[in-house]
């Protein structure tokens, strides 16, 4: 006796095919040239199947990036803030150089004019910033970081140079780039001797 097809399994296979097709197309032709029609054709599904789950191509690619984020390791916490930041920012630098980085670049550009992309990018960045601030706050409590440091600003100072160089492609990032950035940053963020946080 033959088994009946499992609709939930077929749906999940279609969903995975759509995510993979959208990611591949975005890397190959760029975000702007990626269309729902092209995604559907590559995934072997109808357009309505895509629209049943997502309102736009940006939403499809945002789910792909959310999965990338969930698969990545949590923000490290070894007790050494500088080492943890170096590990995390180096991992981010590596991710930005991959196909997922190309997708993320497309979404960041689209976010300037696409509300779905803007909301999704903001949500992903807020989670990343929250993780970083939690680690920085712990470092403040342990005396590794100046007590008066504005943590939102610290995040911007640490990650801003990496995003600037990557997004604008002003120069190839040299080996040890984030180590040099963190050396400069920590000279200003380390607590003063004598107990004066300023």
TrEMBL record:
It comes from the Bacteria. The keyword Ubl conjugation does not apply. The keyword Cell membrane does not apply. InterPro entries: Homeodomain-like_sf, HTH-type_TetR-like_transc_reg, HTH_TetR, Tet_transcr_reg_TetR-rel_C_sf, TetR_C. Keywords: DNA-binding, Transcription, Transcription regulation. Gene3D superfamilies: Homeodomain-like, Tetracycline Repressor, domain 2. Residues 12-72 form the HTH tetR-type domain. Residues 35-54 bind DNA. This is TetR family transcriptional regulator. It comes from Phytohabitans aurantiacus.
């Amino acid at each position: 006796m033959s088994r009946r097809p499992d609709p939930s399994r077929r749906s999940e296979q279609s969903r995975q095919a759509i995510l993979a097709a959208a990611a591949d197309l975005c890397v190959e032709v760029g975000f702007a040239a990626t269309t729902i029609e092209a995604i559907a054709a590559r995934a072997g599904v109808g357009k309505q199947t895509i629209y049943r789950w997502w309102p736009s191509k940006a939403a499809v690619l945002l789910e792909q990036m959310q999965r990338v984020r969930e698969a990545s390791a949590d923000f490290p916490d070894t007790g050494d803030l500088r080492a943890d930041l170096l590990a995390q920012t180096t991992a981010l630098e590596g991710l930005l150089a991959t196909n997922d980085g190309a997708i993320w670049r497309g979404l960041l550009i689209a976010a300037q004019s696409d509300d779905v992309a803007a909301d999704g990018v903001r949500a992903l960045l807020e989670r990343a910033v929250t993780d970083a601030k939690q680690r920085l706050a712990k470092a403040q409590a342990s005396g590794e970081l100046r007590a008066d440091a504005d943590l939102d600003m610290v995040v911007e100072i640490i990650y801003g140079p990496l995003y600037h160089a990557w997004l604008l492609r002003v120069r190839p990032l040299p080996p040890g780039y984030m180590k040099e950035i963190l050396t400069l940053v920590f000279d200003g963020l380390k607590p003063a001797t004598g107990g004066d946080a300023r």
